[in-house]
Amino acid sequence: MLIFAAVHLFLFVPNLFIIGLLGTLIAVAVVFPMAYLFERGTNTIWAPTVLHVATHAIRPVDIPEPFYMTAVTSP
Question: How far is CA 58 from CA 12, 27, 51, 69, 71, in A?
Fold first, then answer.
């Protein structure tokens, strides 16, 4: 899990602190469902991969800048 956390610390480099922090917190929250899916899927990466793609699906959507933080952080 240390490597997982270290990789997500790169979010702080190009982004504002709050964006890096929220991205890291989301990654920490999603790691447990991903681990569960990995183990339930007989140790294949397909189910966690689909979950990872779904969590990043908001990126291709064009959201105006004033509404971006609201759209990304809303449940």
Answer: 19, 15, 13, 12, 9
